[in-house]
Amino acid sequence: MLNIKELTITEAHNLLVSKKMSVRELVEAVVNVARETQDLNAYLEIFDDIKDDIERAQNKIDDGTSTLLTGIPLAMKDNILIKGKIASASSKMLEQYRASYDAFVSKKLLDEGVIVIGRTNMDEFAMGGSTENSAFGATKNPHDKTRVPGGSSGGSAAVLAAGAALGSLGSDTGGSIRQPAAFCGVVGLKPTYGTVSRSGLVAMASSLDQIGPFAKTVEDAEIIFTAISGHDPMDSTSVPTAQRKESDKKPKVIGVPFNFVRGEGVDPRVLKNFEESLEKMKSAGYEVRDVSLPSLAYGLAVYYILMPAEVSSNLARFDGVRYGYHKDGANLLEDYLQSRGEGFGREVRRRILLGTYVLSSGYYDAYYGRACAVREILRRDLAHIFTEVDIIATPTTPTPAFKLGEKTSDPLQMYLADIFTVPVNITGVPAISVPSGFVDEEGSQLPLGIQFIAPHFCEKMLFEVGKALEYIVKN
């Protein structure tokens, strides 16, 4: 009997082209799982108008013009535009906003014949690490419904882990793909900044945001990444293909900043799993080398200055006048105050205030200016390390998935969950989280993940080392 929860994109494609299953049968099977797992609150909406998409995909398969993604049911994070569909960024502010155009990635996938079956829950405007900040309620982890799925792309990770999609898209500003991928036991890729267009993505922090795939296997992640990458003239940060210095080098040397990895706050079980996985990588022929990256320690501080500053700027447009949530006040100023005060959630307001503060005339140089300078130091240090090693490895997260409500009253503890992931976004390099095992927690088997980091445009190296880890974990 077909196990939809374990079915990969590659396996589904083979079933479709061999006519052992129709697109309609595949989509219906996945949608049934989506409806059966609605208690996770991972989907905000399951689309009911996809009949024409299914027919078009089946025709492409029947006439031999299909691709690996034709007829494959995928899910989309609620901040990626699909023409005619609501894209609320899980915020009251955009609760009724319908996209007037397709995001670059949406169009690419729809052209491939993908069936987008729904939009997934997320932290409001992608601000959070647990998907508890959504205006439409928290998402639960399929492995333990008392725990978070991670964030901000927690809905996209949860639907995949539950078998309610064969792949999904998320956005990653400081770990928002990789952290939920680790918490939910799936693969998550944050591509090199500029390889995947941000056109049609509701912006959080423009120099950090990057769209990327969730998948059940590294091979599937590679398939989705190949489909959504490419130059987009509508995005000024999109890097032309000719300028992408890709490498076909076979990664053999893995650098590990052990001093950083073994720091305070890392769960001993996470560290044990990480070190055991590295030993297995050694037995598979990889060299593991200790590297020194002292600037990594400043990554979190730099991130939580740069990111709120860009949030403050990007979210200034949501004023309740042109579009979005509006609340009438006694005058124009009260219109602004009440519309933004009620339209934005607590975490969004917190980051807007923090960003406005660090950009203010009295503190710009002391905070934002210095953070930009340290960002350049981190970029330089990382580039130097990549002359000595091929790949850098860390745990994806310092702990397994935590309980719902455990960290909502302590934002600093929540922010510390990003300690291993934020340097990647600050420097713009690609990284992938690959499942590395489980830990037992109160009777639940909670997934863990390893993060591999590569030089700019070297996603191929990530896929190769990720597939090696997958093989090692399974065998």
Automatic annotation (TrEMBL):
One of its GO terms (molecular function) is ATP binding. InterPro entries: Amidase, Amidase_CS, Amidase_dom, AS_sf, GatA. One of its GO terms (cellular component) is glutamyl-tRNA(Gln) amidotransferase complex. GO terms for biological process: translation. Its EC number is 6.3.5.7. Keywords: ATP-binding, Ligase, Nucleotide-binding, Protein biosynthesis. Gene3D superfamilies: Amidase signature (AS) domain. The keyword Ubl conjugation does not apply. It comes from the Bacteria. It catalyses: L-glutamyl-tRNA(Gln) + L-glutamine + ATP + H2O = L-glutaminyl-tRNA(Gln) + L-glutamate + ADP + phosphate + H(+). The active site is at K77, S152, S176. Heterotrimer of A, B and C subunits. Belongs to the amidase family. GatA subfamily. Allows the formation of correctly charged Gln-tRNA(Gln) through the transamidation of misacylated Glu-tRNA(Gln) in organisms which lack glutaminyl-tRNA synthetase. The reaction takes place in the presence of glutamine and ATP through an activated gamma-phospho-Glu-tRNA(Gln). NCBIfam families: gatA (TIGR00132). This is Glutamyl-tRNA(Gln) amidotransferase subunit A. It comes from Candidatus Yonathbacteria bacterium RIFCSPLOWO2_01_FULL_43_27.
